[in-house]
Amino acid sequence: MPVRSREPASTELPLPTPLRIHGVTDPLTPAEREAWRAVLLVADILRFRVAAALRPFSDLSPADHSVLMRLVEAPEQRMGQQRLANEMFWSKSRLSRQLSRMQARGLVERTTDNGARGVQIVLTAEGIDAVRAAAPAHADAVRRYFLETATEDEVAAFLRLAGRLTDSAGTTRA
Fold first, then answer.
1. pTM for this one?
2. pLDDT string in tens for the chain (174-residue length)
3. Sheet strands (E) in 15-163
4. Do 113 and 120 contact (CB within 8 A), yes or no?
5. What's the CATH code, domain 60-134?
6. Residue 148 · residue 107 · CB < 8 Å
7. What residues does each domain of the chain span?
């Protein structure tokens, strides 16, 4: 029986194979990196400023507000839990924890009625009241920190870009 020679085990980890997405393996250029970081920064700034503006008028967190706004706009102010998770790009567990907190505060209910498949999330009267109470401060903050800062052409260009991005993600426009 032949004896196999063993190479000494390397203590270095092999370098990963470059990830190939759409044929691109190069790092972002400085201009691309600047654009991407600007998107992240602006999103953070807007979320922070709108949340800070709402705080004196509402105890809704940004996550509460996002869930409630989707339910307000949904037919019969209800939506399947899985669809809600998909639309928000949240994991099932993240949404479940958020809904548990909101349900404990009376903002939403979970139900399996109406013959619908899976769990349905239903907006309660308390949830509607919370959205209505926050609406004036929310509208003022969105206008002040976003819409009044941009020109009409910039808003229109942003909406076109947002439309292409949401279409490519397979979601509906908010």
1. 0.76
2. 555 545 544 455 555 555 556 666 789 999 999 999 999 999 999 999 999 999 999 999 999 999 999 999 999 999 999 999 999 999 999 999 999 999 999 999 999 876 667 899 999 999 999 999 999 999 999 999 999 999 999 999 999 999 999 888 775 544
3. 78-80, 108-111, 120-123
4. yes
5. 1.10.10.10
6. no
7. 60-134
